[in-house]
Write a structure and sequence with these properties.
alpha/beta, 22% helix, globular
Length: 210
């Protein structure tokens, strides 16, 4: 897959529909916060590269926003799909990515209908915005048995205005919810905090056991 333009360019941080000048979220989504988001997303890349031979033929990245991780990987034998609930991001992805882009309200996943299933799913920096247990119950419809799920999350880190009340409250709670929905933990990494006041970062690899 071709690479996207350099994410670290200041001008690029003024994303379509999410301008820096009309940012309604103050320092929670200013230029520095956007840089941290991009850098934080890339923390998952070494693990994705490590498991890239196990991706299978169909990979789903959910909620990539303006930082789709799969665009940094060589995936010549893997078809990529993005689920994204922001129309501006979907339009942008369609011009920047070779993947299939689907507008999907992941907070109402029970109303989403698709016949496609995937061998691999990426959930990077979106878990705080989900009723996670509820979301996982429906996500199991779209993953093959023994399929892999990659998680990248810092509890309570992001834009609080959009946080779900039913988000995980700790790293262990995140893992418990995955296990409850038949996802077996096969690798866990605990990385540094984005900032001193934040929680540690969870990088997790799970296998679905139907």
């Amino acid at each position: 897959m071709r690479k996207l333009q350099c994410f670290e360019e200041i001008s690029f941080l003024d994303w379509p529909g999410w301008g820096v000048e009309n940012n309604a979220f103050g320092n929670e989504f200013d230029k520095e916060a956007r840089k941290r988001m991009i850098v934080g997303g890339k923390k998952l890349l070494p693990t994705l590269e490590e498991y890239s031979n196990c991706f299978g033929s169909k990979l789903l990245e959910i909620g990539p926003f303006f930082n789709p991780l799969t665009e940094h990987l060589s995936l010549s034998n893997t078809e990529v799909t993005y689920w994204e609930n922001d129309a501006n991001v979907c339009s942008w992805l369609k011009t920047k990515s070779k993947g299939k882009v689907i507008l999907c309200d992941v907070n109402n996943i029970e109303n989403f209908k698709s016949s496609e299933t995937y061998n691999t799913i990426i959930l990077s920096q979106i878990i705080n915005y989900l009723n996670f247990d509820f979301f996982l119950r429906y996500l199991t419809k779209y993953i093959e048995t023994s399929g892999l799920v990659f998680i990248n999350n810092v509890v309570n880190y992001g834009i609080p205005n959009f946080f779900s009340r039913e988000r995980p409250i700790s790293i262990e709670h995140t893992i418990q919810l995955m296990r409850k929905n038949n996802f077996e933990l096969i690798e866990k990494k605990i990385l540094e905090k984005p900032r001193t006041k934040d929680d540690y970062r969870l990088i997790g690899v799970f296998r679905y056991l139907r």
